[in-house]
Amino acid sequence: MKIVKHFFVLISCVLLWIATPDSTAQAQCAMCSLNAENGTKNGNTQGNGLNDGVLFLLGVPLIIVAGVGFLWYKKFRKQNHEKVYF
After folding, report:
1. Could you tell me where the DSSP H helices lie in 1-86?
2. d(Cα 35, Cα 32) in Å, to the nearest integer?
3. pTM metric for this prediction
4. pLDDT tens, 53-70?
5. CA 57/CA 62 separation, integer angstroms
């Protein structure tokens, strides 16, 4: 049981570390990034919208996986509380 708990904590920490965005992260390929930067320098704000949109699309699967993991944890924890022996 302790191994599963430590594994769950480790996986949670790794997912949290991966999900934490870096301030210098780029959300698109090099070609799109270059076009977005050049457009931003000329007063065009579409590059920022492109970056935000890609990060938003990346966040949705992460939230789904976290939700499934949470539900799985709740179900697993509920089963373990029923098997208490004295």
Report:
1. 2-19, 30-41, 46-82
2. 5
3. 0.41
4. 777 888 888 999 999 999
5. 9
